[in-house]
Design a protein that fits this description.
147 residues; alpha+beta; STM4215-like; elongated
Length: 147
């Protein structure tokens, strides 16, 4: 079972997709960077992957289980506040499109994405007031993969 292989497919696919936008949008990964990679006024994407279940039970008791991993991927798109939602929704569309293509990226991990939630504006009132220069749109989806 390899969480790293699954994480690599998702992270690489997202970084490539957002890097292809004009202008390119940097992606930060959970447990890698604690600060945004751009100035406080810029746009970026934060990617978080969790693994809440790693083995599915089976009917035949002689076997130990099936190495099926269930996870959740969350993509938070940050952009400058007070500039409208168009660019943030374009970023969300890139995230959703990339999620929909993950199954074709790597047959060994066989990542299958479920229903995608979003784009959802998160804490608009909190993020768009005061000193915080960003607005946030979130996209999230459950997935299954082979370990």
């Amino acid at each position: 079972m390899s969480f790293a292989a699954i994480r690599s497919v998702i992270e690489t696919s997202m970084a490539t997709a957002f890097g292809g936008m004009s202008p390119a949008v940097p992606v930060i990964f959970d447990s890698v960077q604690s600060e945004p990679p751009v100035s406080a006024e810029g746009e970026y994407v934060s990617l978080n992957i969790t693994f809440p279940m790693t083995v599915a039970p089976i009917i035949c008791m002689e076997e130990s289980g099936i190495g099926m991993i269930r996870g959740t991927v969350s993509i938070n798109c940050y952009g400058p506040r007070a500039q409208g939602m168009k660019r943030l929704e374009e970023m969300a569309t890139v995230a959703m499109t990339t999620l929909n293509t993950l199954k074709t990226v790597d047959a060994a991990t066989n990542i299958c994405v479920g229903q995608i939630a979003g784009p959802e504006t998160v804490q608009q009132a909190l993020l768009s007031t005061g000193q915080n220069p960003h607005t946030l749109v979130a996209v999230a989806a459950p997935f299954t993969a082979k370990g």
